[in-house]
Write a structure and sequence with these properties.
Layout lengths: L2 H20 L6 E5 L11 H9 L2 E4 L2 H10 L6 E3 L5 H13 L4 E4 L12 H9 L3 E5 L4 H7 L8 E6 L4 H9 L7 E6 L4 H12 L4 E6 L7 E6 H9 L9 E5 L7 H14 L5 H12 L3 H14 L2
Parallel strand pairs: 1-4, 1-5, 2-3, 2-4, 6-7
Antiparallel strand pairs: 7-10, 8-9, 8-10
Bound molecules: S-adenosylmethionine (SAM).
Length: 305
């Protein structure tokens, strides 16, 4: 960035900060503040203002948030609000809000209450008829969706899949016919296993986006059919590191009557055939794709377990 762009940017930030002085930030409110998912510059000016004026910050991990705030030149009373103490801490927050304090709620990264603690606190504050104000910002799911090229007029946020194979299979089976883009979170130690499970559930042709280390130095957004994802990950050990959002493109919408016909047929066939026999017969009878029918039959047979 040249120096004139840098100084114009600084001026813009100063103007925004001045404008914020005129905005009202009610007392006695809970501010749900999104923080960056990697890149510190992704904080909003409004988030900085709220964090600066808050009487205290409820955070998942006081050490992480303490470090984050110090990077922004802020030092605040911090207290822990994590999945093990959320209910108790919610009452404490309600009391403090009633006394007119402004409390900010943050998680370790991204938007609180999205695959993170926070929802119980927000619920308790709303139940007490107090004000909750979201301070919008980064969320890994939305960042990944926006750069996937998949349709996102409908998406289904799944978050982390269960780690046990059977439960994971049940969740995935229930999603096979969904036409919405599916959004998963995953940690590096389970990425290979999860990709394999996605390929088994959705078949080789469905497209996947692996959005890795978003907003960080080694950000990667890779799109490929599920059949190629395992090989892509295995090709370079670095690709299995870091944080991941996985997006699976929604099923192509079969005309509703075609789907209904296939379901009725499979229901009958599954009474006396295995999943793969039922799918093969249904494919011969209807002319529909065997793989799609197999996934449908699998989800129907698991629903009936
Ligand atoms: N509340 C956060 C949000 O708004 O996205 C999500 C918190 S959840 C505990 C953490 C998971 O989010 C990670 O395991 C990963 O799946 C995803 N995630 C967070 N930061 C990410 C990043 N920079 N790149 C890719 N995925 C990320």
């Amino acid at each position: 960035m040249d120096s004139s762009t840098a100084s114009s940017l600084t001026n813009t930030l100063l103007t925004l900060a001045e404008d914020l002085q005129k905005q009202v930030f009610p007392a006695g409110a809970l501010y749900v503040v999104a923080t960056p998912i990697g890149n510190l510059a992704d904080i909003s000016v409004r988030a900085l203002k709220v964090l600066a004026m808050a009487d205290a910050v409820a955070c998942e991990d006081t050490r992480n948030t303490g470090q984050l705030l110090s990077r922004y030149g802020l030092s605040k009373e911090l207290f822990a609000a994590h999945q093990h103490n959320e209910r108790e801490v919610a009452q404490k927050i309600v009391e403090r809000l009633k006394s007119g304090e402004r409390i900010a709620l943050v998680s370790d990264a991204g938007t609180p209450a999205v695959s993170d603690p926070g929802a119980r606190i927000v619920d308790a504050v709303l139940q007490a008829e107090l004000t909750v104000i979201p301070i919008a910002g980064a969320s890994a799911a939305i960042a990944a969706l926006s750069s996937s090229g998949f349709l996102s007029d409908q998406f289904h946020f799944v978050g982390f899949l269960p780690s046990k194979e059977k439960q994971r299979g049940t969740v995935l089976s229930s999603l096979i016919t969904s036409t919405a883009t599916l959004v998963f979170y995953e940690a590096p130690h389970r990425i290979t296993e999860t990709i394999a499970a996605l390929a088994r559930a959705f078949g080789p042709d469905r497209r996947l986006v692996l959005a890795r280390e978003l907003s960080k130095l080694f950000e990667q957004i890779h799109r490929c059919p599920l059949s190629e994802a395992e090989a892509w990950l295995a090709a370079d050990a670095h690709r299995q590191r870091g944080e991941f959002v996985l997006l699976v493109e929604g099923a192509s919408a079969a005309p509703a009557d075609e789907l209904e016909e296939a379901k009725r047929l499979l229901e009958i066939l599954l009474e006396s055939c295995s999943v793969s026999q039922a799918a093969a017969l249904a494919a011969r009878i209807t002319g529909q794709k065997k793989n799609a029918l197999y996934q449908l039959a699998l989800s129907m047979s698991q629903e009936n377990l």
